[in-house]
Amino acid sequence: MALRCSDLALLIDHGFDDVIDVRSPAEWQEDRIPGAINLPVLDNEERARVGTIYKQVNPFSARKIGAALVARNAARHIEDTLADRPGGWRPLVYCWRGGQRSNSFAMILGQIGWRVEVLEGGYKTWRGLVVRELYETPIRPRVVVIDGNTGSAKTELLAHLAAQGVQTLDLEGMANHRGSLFGARAGGQPQQRGFESALAVALSRLDPARPVVVEAESSKVGDLRLPPGLWKAMQAAPRIEVSAPVAARAAYLVRAYRDLVADGVRLARVIDLLRPLHPAKTIEGWLLMAASGDHETLAAELMERHYDPRYARHRDRSGAPREVVETASLDDLPALAARVAERVARLAEG
Fold first, then answer.
1. Are 180 and 208 in contact (CB under 8 A)?
2. Any catalytic annotation for residue 95?
3. Percent of the chain at pLDDT above 90?
4. Rg for the chain, CA atoms, rounded
5. Cα dihedral angle (36, 170, 126, 226), rounded to 10 degrees?
């Protein structure tokens, strides 16, 4: 039985016991329906082999070899991953287009007695819904941007706002990146399509009647591009700027970037990337601070001589309304978030 779906929210809240992606691991790694498990009926090498036979020999030979491989891999999945599934188990299966791979696997599962369905159009249906959400649908809630110079604890404040009931959109969390040259995180970034899937799901779940708070970003988070509609909405949005002294921000950065601070080789490598933008003497001074463990002074220097001037130029180009929340310390972030939440509430009333 085929499932036809033309609504992103309905596919997200599908109600199936499992969603099974039978594409190759490489296809699954790039992007998949959130929560799907990968039970490939052809692995990366097998898929390439069958494709080569299809083009260089003939389709019949490719289908015959492919069928044997699918049956063999399906048997392994049934004996291993699916061994504990009960008789009433109801899975949704998909491949690239909802064609031979998913239908072959679903037929085998159906013969066992499981209530299996195949997603019509396969992954391409999902991708089409994501594209429509991100590139064709206006942002529904009013966007409010939390801004501030580097080290203002914007990302952590966003998490505290969410804990206090404010609607938020965590772009850096979805991109697995802190949004600056020093912002790489363990595990690396997802593929662009995977990021877009996570973002589409998050946007579709927002309450349009409530404002959504987003951290100020450029048009890219690390290597990942923001959809133009979201980026334009962020540029035009009112901003709540957190203003803290350099010393407070430097102390916070050392705490927030403890993974980078602890890795001297990586820290020096990132500082080296700034050579085209600063004199060699400045770079050597920063490298010496990093090597000697003077991380707060290094953070203060980087902010005053690199990041703060660039933020100032960017803000000068933005004509969006702006409110400033001043703080002498970044030690009590829940209290600071509560002050920001008050401003968000006032903006919502206005």
1. no
2. yes
3. 90
4. 25
5. -140
Gap between the Cα atoms of 96 and 33, Å rounded: 12
Q: What is the token pair recorded at 53? A: 């036979």
Cβ atoms of 340 and 163 closer than 8 Å:
no
Closest by CA to 50, choosing from 77, 73, 19, is 73
105-119 pLDDT, tens digit per residue, is: 999 999 999 999 999
Separation of alpha carbons 92 and 285, rounded Å: 58
Q: Which long-range contacts (CB under 8 A, 24 or more apart) does 5-14 make?
A: 5/119, 5/120, 5/125, 5/129, 6/129, 7/129, 8/129, 8/130, 8/132, 8/133, 8/200, 8/201, 8/204, 9/204, 9/205, 11/119, 11/125, 11/126, 11/129, 12/201, 12/204, 12/205, 14/92
Contact 43, 159 (CB under 8 A): no
d(CA 81, CA 160): 38
β-sheet bridge partners, residue 145: 214, 239
> Which residue, 212, 133, 226, 245, is CA-closest to 179?
226
- Global pTM value: 0.92
- Residues 261 and 258: their CA atoms lie apart, in Å, by 5
Q: Exactly one of 5, 33, 92, 95 is catalytic; name it.
A: 95
Helical H segments across 43-191, by residue range? 44-56, 59-79, 100-112, 122-131, 154-163, 171-175
| For range 209-224, the mean pLDDT | 95
Confidence of residue 350 (pLDDT cuts 50, 70, 90): low
Distance CA 95, CA 119 (A): 8
In percent, how much of the chain has pLDDT > 70?
98
Q: Where does the chain show beta strands of DSSP type E?
A: 2-3, 18-21, 37-38, 91-94, 117-119, 143-147, 168-169, 212-215, 220-221, 224-225, 239-243, 322-326
